[in-house]
Structures are given as C-alpha cells and as structure tokens.
Amino acid sequence: MSDCIFCKIVRGEIPAKVVYEGERVLAFDDVHPQAPVHTLVIPKEHFTNLQDDVPPELLGELFTSVREVARIKGVAETGYRVIVNNGPDANQTVPHLHIHILGGHHMTHGMVNLGPGQ
C-alpha cells in the first residue's frame, strides 16, 4: 500500500529505530512511546489487521519475533504487555497490522478503558 506509513518504513522511505528484522517481519520503536519500552512488530507485507487473511505461518513469525524483541529490549525476564488493536473500535490508528510490546516498568492491573458510559 503506497501511502501506508508502516509500508513506507519497511521500504526505507521513513526512518525508524529498527530493533529487529527478519525475512518477513520488522520491529521498531514507537515514535510516541507509552512506556519506557514501546516497540512495534509488523509484517513487511501489508495487511490491514487480523481480519485480513494473514497466513498462519506469518502470524507465528510475528509472535515469535515478539519474544526476540522482548529479549533485545531487556524486558523478557521482568515482563511485558503485548497488544494488537484490531479495527476502529479498538482504536487502531494505523491501518497496518502491528503488535505493540510495552514494558520497562510495573503496569497497572486494568488492561482496557471501555470509554464513556462503560
């Protein structure tokens, strides 16, 4: 997808602090971190989200990469949170499948904010 920001990162058109790169996966630090460690893992091929017929072997590679990124970033032993926002109700702000890895400090118990009236 030519105008996708993550596809532009994959093509080297937009700089990113790359943490890990595999044949079909790229991991880079989020430019607006929400934790001391906030790294994104994406497929190099464009998929909008999990509903986009992502091949199972690529999903496996993405989640295997999460473990490696956690090791590289120094949070594998202390713990980290893994989040995939899938679609507009989940507040997926970039329409390219991506996994957030957050860590580097003790996180609060609640994982979600259901929004107004919930």
Layout of helices and strands, plus pairs?
Blueprint: H1 5-10, E1 18-21, E2 25-29, E3 37-43, H2 56-73, E4 80-83, E5 99-103
Largest sheet: spatial strand order: 1-2-3-5-4
Strand content: 15-25%
CATH T-level topology: HIT family, subunit A
Query: Percent helix among the residues?
Result: 10-25%
- Mean pLDDT equals 92
Please report the total strand number as a whole number.
5
Q: Can you walk through the features of this model?
A:
The relative contact order is 0.21. The longest helix is centred in the middle third of the chain and has 18 residues, at about 55-75. The protein has helices at about 5-10, 55-75; strands at about 20, 25-30, 35-45, 80-85, 100-105. It has one domain: HIT-like (HIT family, subunit A, 2-Layer Sandwich). It has a 5-stranded antiparallel β-sheet with strand order 1-2-3-5-4, covered by helices on one side. The protein is α+β, with helices and mostly antiparallel strands.
